[in-house]
Amino acid sequence: MRRMLGHTRLLTLTGTGGVGKTRLAVQAGEALRGAFAHGVELVELATLEDGDLLESAVATALGLRELGPCSMTTLVDYLADRRMLLVLDNCEHLLEECALLVDRMLRGAPRLRILATSRQALGVYGEQVLYVPPLTTSDPGEAVRDIARHDAVRLFAERAARARPGFTVDAANAATVARLSQRLEGIPLAIELAAVRLRTTPVEQLLRELDEHFEAPVEGARSVLPRHRSLRATLDWSFGLCSAAEQRLWSRLSMFAGGVALEAAEAICPGAEIDKEDVVDLIAGLVDKSVLIATERDTGVYYRMLDSIRSYGREELSPAEARALGRRYVEYYRGEVERHRLDRLSPHQLEGFRALHRELPNLRVALDLCFGRTVEASVGLEIASALWVFWIIAGSLTEGRHWLDRGLRLVPEANSARAHALWVDSLLALHQGDLKTALPQLEECRILAQRLGDESALAFATQVSGIAAFSAGEPRRGLALLEEARAGHLAGGDVDAAAINRFYAAAYGAAEAPELSITLGDWFLALSDARDAQLSRGYALFALGMAAWNQGDWRRAEALMREAAELRNTLNDRWGLTQCLEVLAWTACAQGRYERAATILGTAHPLWRAMGASPTRLFPHVRGHEQCMARAHEELGGRAFAAAFRQGARLGLKRTITYAIERADGE
């Protein structure tokens, strides 16, 4: 792999399921990290089931905000001058989409190299394919020492020793272990599933059970390629060794694309042979059999399945059971989205953001179930709309619009779910600079809300119309519409919506009415502090910093932007962080530190470009950016300005934060 990646820009690892392609790719990525100036990035695609989200998923994995209307352009621009290894894991279920994406990225980013794993080649021009073979097996007639040297035997012995401490390959069992490794065809996953049985079964009996099972016809064998039959037969065998309840739970847990916590499993999986109080013991049994992998996280233990095991479990789920399970699944995650809403000022905002980010693969499954008509599509629209702040903070604007657009096509009828989805979709479009789409949607939302008597949707439609007015260069009209919307929120008793409205008015109206912005920003900050809402606090500080700058108080603006940037960096909020860096460049220029200003402008430039955005197109930033650029260029001269700008662009995100925030008080 090292040698091939030195001579090709696309290397695809192929091989049967369970052979270890992912593990090998991860190991190679770590080993090669030092060879790539901009690092190695891993994008796991096994949990992504909708090909339309591929570009968005890759952009998000790279930490990009998707503010441009085309995430592909954002990706290519970001990667254009980067020397990076991008690892795309598990491409086979999105083969056509992955091939198109890889081709575009390689054409637009000449220093990029891609390592893909897939059960079949992508078929992209210039692709080199490396087949990952099973582990080597041994002949039972070999000497014990020679048998023990083969990779399949070594893996079996290592895993067997975990299941039965003290197990070794010796003269008494070497021939049996050799036959086992042959029977399992050296496939690592099959070996691991078999080895764990040594906790309760002697190795000779284990071989007999496998022989008996493998000699029986494999269900669906005609549709299974010969090199895949060994793993399939091993999974059949492992499934057969589970109790009926464990089998049911295995198949039900296969619905969870992103792994599952015990609480979620207990809420969704009981029924038909499984009681809620039995779930914890059944999970323990599946962990013991290596069907589930337990992973410690800050919030507790999560259980996940390898992709081959999860795919097998989904095949064992009957259509009727899948529908019943799907309804419980959607209801549970609908509750989780409601519980972790980020548009409420609470002390749980950071926790809620991290929970939603962690559960995103499972939320995608829930949305797919809604829009696949397992549950009413209106429910999916409600879930996608309730995630509106998450879509923005996570930089997943394209994905948010994908789900909303899909739901709006399926829910043409006039109801509140459609009305709220329209204003959310419009807001996301505005963040991407898509005024053309946003305006007609806002008009439809306004008419629909009036027809339904939905005062909440009407207030939000007015609020987003105010933001659109700023985007169109009409700040006074924007402030008036935001004030009208705020009155509507308060009349309906929605204090949180009125609070967020004050942020928009403070941030967007800072240039037009800085004193009003300070009043509104102070109110929003006080409420954020009173409720210990850290996410909201970061935005309040930014709004106050903009107001301070527009009043000419650059010292206060700098202090506020530093604090806001630190909070936004905690969330990996690239959009918010980039805006803070932009203003920190202005404050440096105001102090006469022109080289520093040019350097920070340079640090922000690749971030703006990666997001498909520009300070010259955002109303709060246009004037400050242009003045800072002109002044620094004039004072330094063209050559010195360009050198400082290039130095900043090369810093990278981590050093950028250190330079712009930690060194703001002195060089």
Oligomeric state of the chains? single chain
Q: Counting H and I runs of at least 4 residues, what is the number of helices?
A: 34
The fraction of residues in strands falls at 5-15%
Approximate helicity band: 55-70%
Note the overall shape.
globular
The main β sheet shows up as:
5 strands, parallel
Strand order of the largest sheet: 2-3-4-1-5
Number of strands: 8
Structural class: mainly alpha
Question: What is the radius of gyration computed over CA atoms, rounded to a whole number of angstroms?
Answer: 28 Å
Ends distance: 44 Å
Q: What value does the average pLDDT take?
A: 89
Low-confidence spans: 217-228
List its traits:
single chain, 667 residues, mainly alpha, three-stranded antiparallel β-sheet
Your description of this structure?
- The model is unreliable at 217-228 (pLDDT under 50).
- It contains 34 helices and eight strands.
- Helix 3 packs parallel to helix 4 (71-79) and helix 24 (455-471) runs parallel beside helix 26 (495-508).
- The longest helix has 21 residues, at 319-339.
- Strand 7 and strand 8 form a beta hairpin.
Topology:
Blueprint: H1 2-5, E1 10-14, H2 21-32, E2 40-44, H3 54-61, H4 71-79, E3 85-89, H5 95-108, E4 113-117, E5 128-131, H6 144-149, H7 151-163, H8 174-183, H9 188-195, H10 203-215, H11 226-241, H12 244-253, E6 260-261, H13 262-268, H14 279-288, E7 293-297, E8 300-304, H15 307-315, H16 319-339, H17 349-358, H18 360-371, H19 377-386, H20 388-393, H21 397-410, H22 416-431, H23 435-452, H24 455-471, H25 475-491, H26 495-508, H27 514-530, H28 534-550, H29 554-570, H30 574-590, H31 594-610, H32 622-636, H33 638-649, H34 653-662
Parallel strand pairs: 1-4, 1-5, 2-3, 3-4
Antiparallel strand pairs: 6-8, 7-8
Helix pairs in contact: 3-4, 4-5, 4-31, 7-9, 8-10, 9-11, 12-14, 12-15, 16-18, 18-19, 19-21, 19-22, 21-22, 22-23, 22-24, 23-24, 24-25, 24-26, 25-26, 26-27, 26-28, 27-28, 28-29, 28-30, 29-30, 29-34, 30-31, 30-32, 31-32, 31-33, 32-33
